[in-house]
Each structure stands twice: as structure tokens, then as C-alpha cells.
From TrEMBL:
GO terms for biological process: biotin biosynthetic process; gamma-aminobutyric acid metabolic process. It comes from the Bacteria. InterPro entries: Aminotrans_3, Aminotrans_3_PPA_site, PyrdxlP-dep_Trfase, PyrdxlP-dep_Trfase_major, PyrdxlP-dep_Trfase_small. It holds the Pfam family Aminotran_3. Belongs to the class-III pyridoxal-phosphate-dependent aminotransferase family. Its cofactor is pyridoxal 5'-phosphate. One of its GO terms (molecular function) is adenosylmethionine-8-amino-7-oxononanoate transaminase activity. SUPFAM superfamilies: PLP-dependent transferases. This is Putrescine aminotransferase.
């Protein structure tokens, strides 16, 4: 069978039997999905043998790159020893204990405990139940509102999609669930109007204060936010945003939940985005980079204040998942952390590759299509516009999709969020590979123009 006909057979079987997530099924039926067959380092290959630079690290997760034998060996060893046991009902196992201890050693100050989950969405479901339980334990069950942000992303389960601020997700299935409200996002390029970025950062953060007053501080349990919005379009908040949010939170007794599912485990050049922005979270949902995506796993890191109430006043926490702390995933996560540490990957991002990406990415701003080129750590975005001055977009709203197609057909995965192109490459990318990524991005911009 030729490569092309084998691909066609796979596409037909996929169309007949697989309902993939976040996919327009009519569009897929017309075209067929690209079949990815292998990965090595920062590259993936499709079923027709094309080599593609994975500028998204899978889905923001393959941080140590593809094909790491150490992770395969760690999984195989653990599978032989103990493929499954649970953390329910007063039992535990070694990989979960060792992993929790290891994570506590790199976590922001004052976070020593870990609640394991199977994904980022499950982590945010856990957050919702944990913050309400925390306040109820202290005789404040009315403190149950959670404030989040429009266009934030916190997962796809009912709680995750409700906490998130994605309108299309809310429209399917009558979300958000009660006692969740959203404030504007700190997206200066798209929504800043005539304000400077710094003015807009303060304005966006002050919307939190307004919302808390509207709901009543006595009714608000927590504020949840990503350090940098990922799925919303790599929205890097203006420098004034987080300091102003911190000032607002200091006025009220409200928990801070920092969703580190993307920023966690090195993406910003610090272990966590909270350290990058000097935040002191009460809870931190994580996933993705925890195992570099080799196996599904997530967690909620729990700060001392919440942990003390849960462990001293909480009684039973009626919440958890069969695969919470799965031993094979935990063994892989431990090995993944060992690789990150032994190879000094997070330091390398901070000192070498993130500054290099920032410089090279900024050069793309001279392209006639690009209204803004921004990065933090190894996250980047390009705003595609018709008019750089006014930030006006092209009519039709499909410039990003066209650019995405040109990228993919020319050997680069770059994602389109509307007309914002985003990247989040594996953390092991080298400066030479950044040159290659930026050259491929420019080629795609030229083809789109
Ligand atoms: N939170 C953030 C910030 C995310 O980016 C994601 C996924 O992209 C999630 C939560 C949900 O994670 P998962 O897809 O593992 O459920």
C-alpha cells in the first residue's frame, strides 16, 4: 500500500469511528485529519513522512521533547512493579509520595501539599470543590462565588468550562453553573482601546475590585486566573496587572487560585508562573508539563492556609478520582522532573532560549501583517492585522486559519486563536531551532499576506 492510500484509509477509519475533541465535524468530514505517527526531540512526523517542527509542544505539554527513553523506562519499570493502586481509603504508594515531596520542593513558598488528579480539568473541578469546602469548614458556606475572567481557559468539564470564560463553551450546555462570574481579561492589544498598556492593566485589575463589591466580599470564595492566558491567545498581561490584582486581593479575605496548567514546570523560565509574577497562590492547579504529556496526570498544589483547615477541620473530603496519583504516571512525572533538573532546562529557558526567542520573535513585527509580536518565557503570539496603527483586523476573521494552514503545510505547528498566532515549543528547543521556527513562521506570514 502506498503512503497516500494508507493515509486515506486511516482518515476514513478516523472519520467513521473517532469523535475528536474541539473539532468541527462537518469541516473534518470534508477534509480528513492529519495522521501524526511519531516524534523525536522538537519534531513530529505525519503518516506521509513529512517532518514538522512542533511549535506547540503537542498541546503545551511535551516540555522535554519527544522520544525520551528515560520516561519510557520509568513507565515500564513501574508497570512491572505496581501498575495500579489507589490513594483512597487510607492506602498510598511510593511514586505518589515521592512525587508529592518533589513537587513541594519546587513549589512557591508556603505550598507543601498535593492533591492528585488525572488532568487540568479535573484539577479545576477539584479547586471548585476544595475552595467551597474550605470556607464551609470555617462556618462560611455563603462564601461560594468564584470570580474568573472572560476568555480564560480552565478546562472542559462542567466546572472547568464554567470557570473558563469561553463564550462558545458556555453556549453549549447552559454554562456557567451558578455562583461563578467573569471579569474582563487583560488583553491590551484586543481590548485596550486608547489606554496605554499600563493604564489598561490597572483598569482590568480594578474590574476585580468592582466585581467583588458587586457580589459582596462575604460571598466570594476565590479569584482564579492563568498567569498568562494560554488558550485565549497567549495574553501576556501588562506589567501593572498582577501588582494591582495583588493590591485588590489584599483588601479582602479571598483565595487566589493560579491556574498553572500551561505555565507550570518551566514554561516562563521559572518553575511556576506564580514565581515569575511574584504571586502567592492559595491553590495551584497543574497538569500537562508535569509528565511532559507522556501520561495523563494533574494535581492541585495546596497552600498551608487551606491545607491546615482541610486536615484539621475538614473531616472527609468527598472528592477524588480512580486515577488520582496513578503510580505509572507518578513515576513518569518524577523522571520528568529529574530530567528538567539534571539538564538545567528551566534555567536554560530563563537565561538562554527565552531571551533569544524574545529577540528573534520581535523581528517578525516588521512584517506587514504583524501588529504585535510578544513573548514571555517560551510562549509567543503574533497579532495579524490589516492596519498596524489602528489594530484593525482583516474582514472574514479567517486570516489566522489561513496562516495556520501555511505553517502546517510548510513544516511548522503554530496555532491560530482567531487572528492571533501562538507558539509554545518544547522547553528543550535550542537557539538554532528557534531560528528555524522563526524562519518558518515568516514564510507562513509571507504566504498568508
Ligand atoms: N487550565 C488551563 C490553563 C489549560 O490551558 C488547560 C488545557 O489546555 C486546562 C486547564 C485543562 O486541562 P486538560 O485539557 O488537561 O483537562
Amino acid at each position: 500500500m502506498t503512503q497516500a492510500s494508507s493515509t486515506q484509509n486511516l482518515q476514513a477509519d478516523s472519520r467513521d469511528h473517532v469523535l475528536p475533541p474541539f473539532t468541527d465535524y462537518q469541516a473534518l468530514n470534508a477534509k480528513g485529519a492529519r495522521v501524526i505517527t511519531k516524534g523525536d526531540g522538537i519534531y513530529i512526523w505525519d503518516s506521509e513522512g513529512h517532518k514538522i517542527l512542533d511549535g506547540m509542544a503537542g498541546l503545551w505539554c511535551v516540555n522535554v521533547g519527544y522520544g525520551r527513553q528515560e520516561l519510557v523506562d520509568a513507565a515500564a519499570k513501574q508497570m512491572q512493579e505496581l501498575p495500579f493502586y489507589n490513594l483512597f481509603f487510607q492506602t498510598t504508594h511510593v511514586p505518589a509520595i515521592e512525587l508529592a515531596k518533589e513537587i513541594a520542593s519546587i513549589a512557591p513558598e508556603g505550598m507543601h501539599k498535593v492533591f492528585f488528579t488525572g488532568s487540568g480539568s479535573e484539577s479545576n473541578d477539584t479547586v471548585l470543590r476544595m475552595v467551597r469546602h474550605f470556607w464551609a469548614c470555617q462556618g462560611k458556606p455563603e462564601k461560594k462565588w468564584i470570580i474568573s475572567r472572560l476568555n480564560g481557559y480552565h478546562g472542559s468539564t462542567v466546572a472547568g468550562a464554567s470557570l473558563g470564560g469561553m463564550k462558545p463553551m458556555h453556549e453549549q450546555g447552559d454554562l456557567p453553573i451558578p455562583y461563578i462570574d467573569h471579569i474582563p481579561q487583560p488583553y491590551w492589544f484586543g481590548e485596550g482601546g486608547n489606554m496605554t498598556p499600563d493604564e489598561f492593566g490597572v483598569w482590568a485589575a480594578e474590574q476585580l475590585d468592582k466585581k467583588i463589591q458587586e457580589i459582596g466580599a462575604d460571598n466570594v470564595a476565590a479569584f482564579i486566573a492563568e498567569p498568562i492566558q494560554g488558550a485565549g491567545g497567549v495574553i501576556i498581561p501588562p506589567a501593572t496587572y498582577w501588582p494591582t490584582i495583588k493590591k485588590v486581593l489584599a483588601k479582602y479575605d479571598i483565595l487566589l487560585v493560579v491556574d498553572e496548567v500551561i505555565c507550570g514546570f518551566g514554561r516562563t523560565g521559572e518553575w511556576f508562573g506564580s514565581q515569575y509574577f511574584d504571586l502567592k497562590p492559595d491553590l495551584m492547579p497543574v497538569a500537562k508539563g508535569m509528565t511532559s504529556g507522556y501520561l495523563p496526570m494533574g494535581a492541585v498544589l495546596v497552600g498551608d492556609r487551606v491545607a491546615k483547615v482541610l486536615t484539621e477541620q475538614g473531616g472527609e473530603f468527598y472528592h477524588g478520582f480512580t486515577y488520582s496519583g496513578h503510580p505509572v504516571a507518578a513515576a513518569v512525572a518524577l523522571e520528568n522532573l529529574r530530567i528538567l533538573k539534571n539538564e538545567h532546562i528551566v534555567t536554560q529557558v530563563k537565561e538562554k532560549t527565552a531571551p533569544y526567542l524574545q529577540k528573534k520573535w520581535a523581528e517578525l513585527a516588521d512584517h506587514p501583517l504583524v501588529g504585535e509580536a510578544r513573548t514571555t518565557g517560551l510562549l509567543g503570539a503574533l497579532e495579524l492585522v490589516k492596519d498596524k496603527q489602528s489594530r484593525e483586523r482583516f474582514p472574514g476573521g479567517n486570516t489566522g486559519m489561513r496562516c495556520r494552514e501555511h505553517c502546517f503545510n510548510n513544516g511548522l505547528v503554530m496555532r491560530a486563536v482567531g487572528d492571533t498566532m501562538i507558539i509554545s515549543p518544547p522547553l528543550v528547543i535550542t537557539c538554532e531551532q528557534i531560528d528555524e521556527l522563526v524562519a518558518l513562521a515568516r514564510k507562513a506570514l509571507d504566504a498568508t499576506w
